[in-house]
Every structure is written in C-alpha cells, then in structure tokens.
Design a protein that fits this description.
CATH class of one domain: Alpha Beta
Strand order of the largest sheet: 25-24-23-10-11-12-13-14-15-26
Radius of gyration: 32 Å
Strand content: 15-25%
CATH architecture of one domain: 4-Layer Sandwich
Largest sheet: 10 strands, mixed
Helix content: 40-55%
Distance between the termini: 85 Å
Number of strands: 26
Structural class: alpha+beta
CATH superfamily of one domain: Ribonuclease Z/Hydroxyacylglutathione hydrolase-like
Mean pLDDT: 81
C-alpha cells in the first residue's frame, strides 16, 4: 500500500478509543460490552461524513461559497497537521468531506439556470410553445382499471424533453431545463434525440397540499425536471429533425423495446409485463392493481431491478463460466463486464448501481486474492452515488436499498462467524450420522439462516416502511424466501428467451415457458398470501422520535456491544421488543389535558374531504372524493388521517351521490377500520353506477350503513355533537328524489339532497354544507340556521351556490372554499367577506393547502398547510369593537354544546329501510 494511503488510514485511529472506556466498566459487564477496538473501516466514516454534510445542505439553505471555503480551509488544516502527525487531523479531514458534500448538494439541489422554463410557470396550466430534444422515447403510462379510481381516464404516454427555446409572442427566446411530456393517446413514433416542437399547457408539479402526502415538486427537484407539459395528442407535436446517427441512449431504448417485444411474443399477456419489469426494469405495462398485492405483502422489490436480481445474475454467470471450464480470473472479468453492460441496458438506477459496484469490488477482490469488507464496499458505493447525485439521499428507495444491503451483509457475516466455531464434539456427532441425515441437517441449517437473515432485514426496514408507506407486512418474512427460487428460475428463463430469440425460436420458446411458469407461481403465491388474515396491516406509522430512536439504538449496539453478543439473534430481538414496548407505552399514556375539537379540511382540488377528531379521540370523516381520479382523493384523505395518527374511522359520512365526494371511499375501506357509514336517503336509491359500486363495497366489507335526515344526531362523543340539518325527513322513508324517479317527474338534484351537518363543541360550531344549492339552499337559509364559527362553503365555493344570505345568516369567522382558482377566487372571497357585514368580515381560505381548525371555548383557531408545515391564520379584525363577546354581531346568540334541535342517535335509520 502506498505510504500516503497508510498515513491517511492512521488518522482514523481516534475511532478505536472505545477500548479504554470499556475496560473501566465493572467486571460483571465485560461479557456484554466491547473491549476490543472497533474494526478499521475508513470508507464507512467517510461515507457518514459525506451523507451528513449532504443532509444538512438539503434540509437548510447553505451558501455554496461558504461550504467550498469551509472544505478548502479544513483540507489545508488537515494537510498541515498530518505532516506533523497530529491526532486532530482525522476529524479535520472528515470536516472537509462534509463541507464538500454540503457544497455539491447545494449546487445540485438549489442552483438552476436563470432561463429555466419552470420559472415562468406555476401550478395553474398555461398555454406555451417550446422546442427541445427528446431524452426518452414516449412510453405508455399504466392506468388503474378501477372506475372509481380513475379507470375511465384516457390513455396517456410520457416522455422527457430537454428544453431549448420557448416562444414569447412572435419571437423565440432561449430556455433551458427539462420537462416531463404527458401526451394524450398512444405513444407517438419518436426516437431519442429527435428535435420536436410542442404545443401544450405547462405547469409546475404541485406541492404537497396535505401533511404526509407525497410531494411531487420535491421529487421533480430531485430529478431536476421542474416542469410538466400536457400535450393534446399528436396534433400538439411536430418533429423538426431526427438524429442522423442513432445515439447510445436511442440504441439502448431500442434494445429494451425489442426485449419487451420478445418477452411479449413468448410469454402470456398476463405475465409479459411482469417479466419485463423483472428482467429489463420497464414497468410501463404494469397496471396499478396488478402491483398492489406485491406492495401489500412486502415483495414489491421483485417488480424492479434490485440488488437481488443483479446478485442472482452475477452468481449464475460465474457458475456457467466455471462449468464451461473458464479459468477463475477470466471468469471474474467476464462477470464484471456482463454486469456492467446489464446496468447500462436496464438504466443506472441507484439499486442497480449499488449492486453493480459491489459485484465489481467482489470480482476485484477475488482476482487479487483478497476478500474485501462488504460494509466497506457498500460505503464506497454510497460515496459514488452521493458524488454523482446528492439528492438521492432523500429518495426512500435508495435509503431502503442501502439499509437492507447493510443489514444483509452484517447478518451474513454474523452467521459465518457462528459457523466458524469448531466444536470437536459436535463434529464427532455429525460424522456418526448417515449422509442423507447430514444433507438434511445442512439444508435445514441453510433454511434457518435464510429465515434469520430475512428477519433481520425485515426488522431493520419495517419502521421506515411503516412511516413512509403506512403498511406492515409480516407475511413478507415467509414469502420472500419462498418466492426467491421462483424469481431466480424466472430470470434464468427470461434471459435464455432474450439471448436465444435471434438464433433459435424453439429455445426461446422453452425459456419463455419456464419464465412464464415461474412467474405464474410467484403471482399465485403472492395473491394468495395477500388474502391471508393478518398478512398485512395498514398503520398510521410510528412517530419520528420513535423511528429515530430505533435506528440510533441499533447503531449504539453495534458500537458498544461485544462481538459474541452481536452475533446472537436474541440480542437484537430483545432490543427490538424493548423499544417497541416504549412506543406502545407512549401511545397508551392517557390525555391529562382536555383536547380541543380538531377538524382538517383536506386539499382535494375540486372535491371534499373533511376529518373531525373529537376530544376523546374519535374520528369522523365527511366525504372523500375529488373531480377526476379517485386514487388522488384516497391518497390525500389517507395522508391527512395518518398524519393525525388515526387508524380507525368511527363514522364515515357521504353527503350525496356526486363522485367528487365519494370516489376516494374505496381506499378508506381498504386502509382503515370503519365503524359505520351514514348517507342521505337519496344515496341509497340512486341508480348511478359509481353509487351502486361503492354501496356494494361497503356491504362486502360488512360495515353498517344508515341513512340520516334533518333532526338526526350522528353518534360521536359526549362533549361533541354532530347534528344533521338537511335534508328534511321523507314520509315513508322515501325522499323527494326517489318519489320523482318513481313518478317520472323532475325532482331535486343530488346536490339539493346533500347532508348538511353541524359539528358542535364548547359553544363553537362548524357547518359542513356539502353541495347544497338551488331551492333547497334557499329553504335552508329561510329557516334561519344558527350562527357558526366555521362554514365549509357549499358546492366548493362555486359562484352558482353563492347567495350572500347564507354567510349573512350564519356569520362565520372562517369560510373554507375549494375548487376555485384565478379571478373567480377573488370574486368568491370578496362575496363571502362582505356577506357577514362590515362589522365582522369573514376570513376566507382556499384549500390550496389543507386547513386545520381547532375549536375551544375561547376561540376558533385556524392554520394552513403550506411549504411542508402548518402556518397560523388569524381571523379578520373586527371593525366594530363594541360587539359583545357572546353575540355574533347581528344580534344572534352563538350556539352552545347543549342547544340545537337534534334527535338522539336512535333516530338514524338502517339503510335497508329506505
């Protein structure tokens, strides 16, 4: 080893200072705590320092010149002290690494050209014409087949455009940046590198409107693709120039397309998309409902190229080379070259890059006769990934990839250490057994090792999976080892099919048949496992402090515990049980202080989703839907519920039979325990296909379904009442809408039969008006409803349902509207502000971000979710200060918790009665 490398390695000896501390511990604890120095792993320390600097820069804005200056100063100080052999030079070198990581992360995360196309766009689509070059060929986007979740949406294809110019009036001006192209219809026949002109509507990806929701703008920032352009079919695209010579990217894309076509020709239509995802890394043909069982059972990693696939391929290639009598050295070189080519073909995603680097380092170690440290090699891969793309640190897939690999390497090393223990008595007993019995015991030990290693990976990744994806899959412990042989067999068959197709159709058919059969077994096993009771559970996820403590505790155990204890599963199991008990006890701590009523109006676009949580912790959801794809509605309302720590919905209220108010209900039925569903009578008799579908799913889930009308009280909590104010009870349990249908006359619309609900607590009131409009709204206002503190505007704040008399009659402090943008929003805002009178103008909030309301006896507090956090919103100042506190400013007394004309909960009618 060169002298300067040895010198650098010596600067990390300060990390081995734990031995004197451990020696000072009581003698009774010496068997538990580490007394020997920590093993020397310089690359791990460097990777940690680089990741720490990167994380700080991604979390907080840091001036890049300061970071570069800090890196240079630290490096110069390290060089000066290293020449003198000073012990402090190690930390200085780590500081230089951290500053360098922070500077580079700042450049990649925060610095973009001044002519970036996205700077001229916002979240509202606007027409534009741009020119650029295609970086990816258009690919078909998968669509859900569920009609309630957006299955009726038109076919769409997707591509990536490098912007070169944008038209400004009659002139063209230079522009830069990358944009995602969404093209209505089938993929156009355009190749990578083609220069195109695009007529479309551009916008920036939206920010997360709800707490816990996926932030599309942050993801776009990670990929440095800040704009989205929607194109209305082929008429919006013009090919200006095709490349004279095919580029490398175009050749790779054509190779993947031919591979997909080959698999589609030799596999069944049901399994060809799965094989393409498994072998080629293309998931365009996979529908959302086809991947859901894999996600629920914790086996979704087999649907994309991961370290498992690369390791299986590398091992298979090495075995084939050795069987072909290829010498060890050339075989290792051939494996390294083949894996590198495979990484290029399938796309250099982070898991593939990480696995390829590990294979290369392993091959290099085997070629020179030295076995490299698995964790040191993993640290080298992490350093390379962060050097190429620092924002990769924020991607949950990359975090899980490195975490699971680190645990896999550590667990495998621990099992190897245990097996190296030479017990003469055990060896003597083993020799006395028959060869068959020895083989059975050896395979049983191998299976036990696989299960233990799998359990270690599952324990390490389960908390972060639960926190980010809100699902826990115990069945994955058994399922992953069970399907691993079938996955390996499918890969072998798929590669045989792809490689043999140009020369032998028979051999390609055989390989395709093997791949198809193996994937059919995988599909069947996963689908059946997903149906098992307790196979998975949707959870709100652990709090941040508990997740941090989980991983910090495991790192502490690795650093301070003796190696004989580290290799025992009992040590890790007891640590996991102890910390889990801490979390359960924290959840079981009773509320000593009275909690206020909390209501969150979710950001659902043109839709409605409201979560109400009472002082005792019960939860009521009023509507769950939005215009368009229901999957977005389910995702948004689920994110709000999980952010509040809710796993059970005591009451789900569906206001009326418009899909933009209930097309997110199927997701709630799957992810949460629901006590009852309350609907208006008109909902039960509606013949709309979406209503029939959702009623069927509610019945299949075994959830009680009841109807409600004015005067009913929905059971909730003792200190919080939920009263129904509209529609009026129908004679004979049949409302006006159903009578009109039976008589063939025109009756009230679904909007006019909306359930209007008042939530009352501590003398405060929230009025949820659904889509109430027309004559029904006029009658409701004429009945002089009681004043309220918060009004969720009817019909999403539409000007068509904007009589000033409603706000004047209820005099709210806050009015919440949704689905209104642009000039119409200003019109709605001014109308509601003026409706309550000049003495008490209302604060009008639009759900561009979720709105949270907290009701106490003293006040009604509002805050809005913006830029990833809740920001306080105050009420409009009162012009007249002489208004009594107990009055609403118009002479009406505010309602108290015991007032109102509501019948008790027994008045709710079973759905079967009409």
């Amino acid at each position: 080893m060169p002298p300067h490398v040895v010198g650098i390695a010596k600067h990390f000896e300060w990390l081995r200072a734990w031995a004197p501390i451990a020696a000072a511990l009581p003698s009774s604890l010496h068997g538990w705590w580490r007394r020997e120095p920590l093993p020397s792993r310089p690359l791990i320390v460097v990777a940690v320092a680089l990741a720490l600097g990167t994380a700080i820069a991604l979390a907080r804005p840091l001036p890049a010149p300061w970071c570069w200056s800090g890196a240079v100063v630290s490096l110069l100080a390290w060089w000066a002290l290293a020449r003198r052999g000073h012990a402090a030079c190690g930390p200085l070198l780590l500081m230089a690494v951290a500053f360098t990581g922070a500077a580079w992360a700042t450049a990649r995360w925060r610095l973009f050209p001044v002519d970036e196309l996205a700077w001229t766009l916002d979240e509202r689509p606007r027409p534009l014409v741009v020119e650029g070059r295609l970086l990816e060929a258009p690919r078909r986007r998968s669509r859900p087949s569920d009609p309630l979740r957006g299955g009726s949406l038109p076919e769409t294809s997707e591509s990536l455009l490098e912007v070169k110019g944008v038209r400004d009036g009659e002139m063209w001006r230079p522009a830069s940046g990358r944009a995602t192209l969404l093209i209505d219809g089938a993929p156009p026949p355009l190749s990578v590198g083609s220069d195109v002109r695009v007529w479309g509507r551009g916008l920036r990806p939206p920010r997360a409107g709800n707490p816990g929701e996926f932030d599309q703008r942050a993801r776009a920032r990670q990929e440095r693709t800040l704009a989205v352009i929607r194109v209305a079919g082929l008429d919006g695209l013009e090919c200006l120039r095709t490349p004279a010579w095919p580029s490398i990217a175009d050749c790779l894309d054509q190779l993947r397309c031919r591979g997909e076509a080959t698999l589609a020709a030799h596999l069944s239509a049901a399994r060809a998309p799965l094989a393409a995802a498994l072998i080629l890394g293309t998931r365009d043909g996979l529908a959302g409902d086809a991947t859901e069982p894999f996600m629920l059972t914790g086996t979704v990693h087999i649907l994309s190229i991961s370290g498992l696939h690369v390791a299986l391929l590398a091992g298979g290639l090495f075995v084939v080379a050795r069987l072909a009598s290829v010498p060890r050295g050339p075989a290792l070189v051939a494996v390294a070259v083949a894996i590198g080519l495979y990484m290029v073909v399938v796309g250099a995603q982070t898991p593939v890059v990480r696995a390829t680097l590990l294979v290369w380092l392993t091959c290099l170690g085997g070629a020179v006769g030295r076995r490299s440290s698995g964790l040191n090699a993993l640290a080298a891969a992490a350093i390379l990934v962060l050097a190429c793309h620092p924002p990769e640190l924020l991607r949950i897939g990359s975090q899980l990839s490195f975490l699971s690999t680190a645990v896999l390497v550590g667990a495998a090393s621990a099992r190897a250490t245990v097996r190296r223990v030479d017990d003469p008595i055990a060896r003597l007993i083993d020799r006395a057994r028959s060869p068959v019995m020895r083989w059975i015991r050896q395979r049983g030990a191998d299976l036990a090792d696989i299960m233990l290693v799998g359990a270690a990976v599952w324990l390490a990744t389960a908390p972060i999976v639960a926190a980010m994806f809100h699902v826990v899959s115990p069945v994955g412990l058994l399922l992953n080892p069970l399907i691993a042989p079938f996955v390996g067999l499918a890969m072998v068959g798929g590669f045989v099919c792809l490689l043999a197709a140009p020369v032998s159709g028979i051999l390609a058919a055989v390989g395709g048949g093997v791949c198809d059969g193996a994937l059919a077994c995988v599909d069947m096993i996963v689908a059946q496992a997903a149906r098992l009771p307790g196979a998975y559970a949707w959870v709100a996820g652990p709090p941040a402090w508990w997740t941090f403590g989980w991983y910090a505790g495991f790192v502490a155990i690795l650093l301070v515990m003796a190696q004989p204890r580290l290799v025992r599963p009992f040590t890790w199991g007891m640590a996991a049980v102890a910390w889990a008990a801490v979390g359960l006890m924290a959840m079981a701590v009773p509320r000593w202080a009275a909690a206020p009523v909390e209501a969150v109006v979710a950001a659902m676009g043109h839709g409605c989703g409201i979560v109400v949580r009472g002082p005792e912790g019960r939860c009521l959801v009023y509507d769950a839907g939005r215009l368009g794809a229901g999957v977005a509605a389910g995702r948004g309302i689920s994110a709000v519920l999980w952010s509040m720590g809710v796993s059970r919905i005591d009451t789900l209220v569906i206001s009326h039979a418009d899909t933009d108010h209930f097309n997110g209900v199927p997701d709630l039925l799957e992810r949460f325990t629901i006590g009852r569903v309350v609907v208006p009578g008109a909902f039960i008799v509606s013949s709309a296909p979406a209503v029939v579908e959702v009623l069927g799913r509610i019945g299949a889930a075994g959830i009680p379904l009841t109807t409600a009308a004015a005067g009913d009280e929905i059971p909730f909590e003792r200190s919080c009442r939920v009263c129904v104010l509209h529609p009026a009870p129908a004679a004979g349990r049949q409302d006006g809408a159903s009578r009109s249908r039976a008589e063939g006359t025109v009756g009230p619309s679904d909007n006019e039969t909306s359930l209007v609900v008042a939530v009352e607590s501590a003398g405060r009131r929230i009025l949820l008006a659904g889509d109430l409009e027309g004559a029904a709204l006029d009658r409701f206002v004429a009945a002089e409803p009681a004043a309220c503190d918060v009004l969720v505007a009817p019909h999403h704040g539409s000007p068509a349902s904007l009589p000033p008399t409603l706000a004047a009659a209820t005099t709210p402090e806050y009015v919440i509207v949704s689905g209104v943008e642009g000039p119409r929003w200003d019109e709605v805002r001014r109308a509601y502000e003026a409706a309550s009178g000049p003495q008490r103008p209302a604060r009008v909030l639009r759900t561009s971000g979720a709105v949270r309301l907290r009701l106490t006896a003293d006040s009604a507090e509002a805050s809005q979710f913006q830029d990833g956090q809740w920001q306080r919103v105050g009420p409009m100042p009162e012009v007249a200060r002489g208004v009594p506190a107990e009055s609403d400013g118009n002479g009406k007394e505010r309602i108290n918790a015991s007032s109102g004309d509501c019948r008790d909960s027994s008045s709710l009618r079973p759905a079967g009665g009409g």
